[in-house]
Amino acid sequence: MITINENFLKLQAGYLFPEIGRRVSAFAKDNPSADIIKLGIGDVTEPLVPSILEAMHKAVDDQANADTFKGYGPERGYSFLIDAIVEHEFKARGVDISPDEVFVSDGSKCDTGNVQEIFGRDNVVAVTDPVYPVYVDTNVMAGRTGDAAKDGRYEGLVYLPCTAENDFTPDLPDTSVDMIYLCYPNNPTGTVATKETLKKWVDYARENRALILFDAAYEAFISDDDIPHSIYEIDGAKEVAIEFRSYSKVIGFTGVRCGYIVVPKELKAYKSDGSAVEVNAIWNRRHSTKFNGASYVSQVGAAAYYTGQGRLEVKKVIDLYMANASYMIESLKEMGYEVYGGVNAPYVWLKTKDGMTSWELFDKFLNEAHVVGTPGSGFGASGEGYFRLSAFNNLARVKEAMERIAKL
Ligand code: MLT
Question: Is 82 in the same domain as 102?
């Protein structure tokens, strides 16, 4: 008899974004003439920039010629991309990362979901609340939690509330935890962590032999000079942190797929007898067993970002998205909403008015303004009463969305 992994049965309904998609499709079916503006899932809308496209076209042509054809590439990624990452993402910020600490992948959703499998099942996991649901759901699947309570919180997980009351800055846990997921700039609240905040977490992890899983998928949207882009800007972080980076939002690769994970050589995890094991070697073993490398074309495209021209072109697109965020912040404030985020991150996080729940506001915006956002409660119990709008769209559509919302 084939049995099922019953941990999967503990998962709440559907994954958040397919559930939103289902509701939007049902609405569109019933209202075929409605012009729906999507500010829900953080999916980019601008085309790839010319220098990245050109590089990718050339890479496709490489596949047409026996001399330049590429079959299986190195599982950990081509050195032309890894060397560019080391140089431009880390060395340029004073961080020393070696090429064999970087593992190129097909994106951060997979990396943040997969990483937990190399760590013991008994580890206690801490997540900020609200949180990107992948961190929670993959630990549920792995059996690190009990069942979910009515508010959606899983037994055994440690939730660190992030609300307006604590300025969206989680307190250190008051119980002992082993794996801590942090995402900065934050999805969904759009808020950031200062060096002091990150230092507090690095110190905690070093004192408690814990691990920080640091998702920096949105670092390219940081505009304030004093906000760290990488957790490795904090002394000692290489001993206790894995970092995730994604090309999805930065260079518009949500459809192309490419990202990477940094697993420092200094990072150790422990066997039950207390002896230390090098995490980099274990991840390398896992990665090269289960993954055959990101596609050559996507890696060539990602590497083109690191040319001067690539950076300039991408910056223009990021500025365009962030102009949308600024516009939304101003408009929503004028409408009397309390608004957070949206300055160093492409997400605007607002408090619902008049005690509405997140899903009530979702329905109101969809039904009456034909605007799609993401209900804050979909990211966790502490997201209840909040709502997320994504800046990924064009300014004309964002203006139209704000005008419609203002009329409600
Ligand atoms: C989001 O909207 O939160 C993200 O686009 C989801 C993701 O990156 O998987």
Answer: yes
Q: State mean pLDDT over 350-355.
A: 97
Q: Give the number of domains in the chain.
A: 2
- In this predicted structure, what is the pLDDT of residue 254? 97
> Cα 202–206–211 angle (5° rounding)?
75
Query: Probe ligand 1: pick from 24, 44, 111, 187, max atoms within 8 Å of CB?
Result: 187
- Residue 17's pLDDT band, with cuts at 50, 70 and 90, is confident
Tell me the pTM.
0.97
Tell me the C-alpha distance between 73 and 60, whole Å: 15
17 Cα–ligand 1 center, Å: 8
pLDDT over threshold 80, residue 15 = no
Report which ligand 1 atom has the smallest distance to the Cα of 188.
3
pLDDT computed for residue 191 by the predictor: 97
Is 293 part of any domain? yes
pLDDT at 12: 82
Residue 40 alpha carbon, nearest atom of ligand 1:
2
Is the shortest distance between the CB of 254 and ligand 1 below 6 Å? no
CA of 207 to the centre of ligand 1 (A): 32
The CA distance from 306 to 220, in Å, is 13
Domain range enclosing 363: 6-47+309-406
Residue 90 has pLDDT above 80, yes or no: yes
Strand ranges across the sheet with 339-341: 339-341, 347-351, 386-390, 374-375
**Burial letters 81-117, b for 16+ CB under 10 A, else e:** bbebbbeebbeeeebebeeebbbbbbbbbbbbbbbbe
User: Using one digit for the tens of pLDDT, what is the confidence trace for 369-392?
Assistant: 999 999 999 999 999 999 999 999
CATH code of the domain containing 223: 3.40.640.10
Residue 245 lies in a domain: yes
Q: Is 288 helix (H, G, I), strand (E, B) or coil?
A: helix
- Residue 277 Cα to ligand 1 middle (Å): 32
The pair of structure tokens assigned to 206 is 């070093």
**pLDDT, tens digit, 9 for 90 and up, residues 238-268:** 999 999 999 999 999 999 999 999 999 999 9
Which of residues 258, 275, 307 is at a domain's end? 307
Query: Do you find a cis peptide bond into 130, omega within 30 degrees of 0?
Result: yes
What pLDDT shows up at residue 18? 87
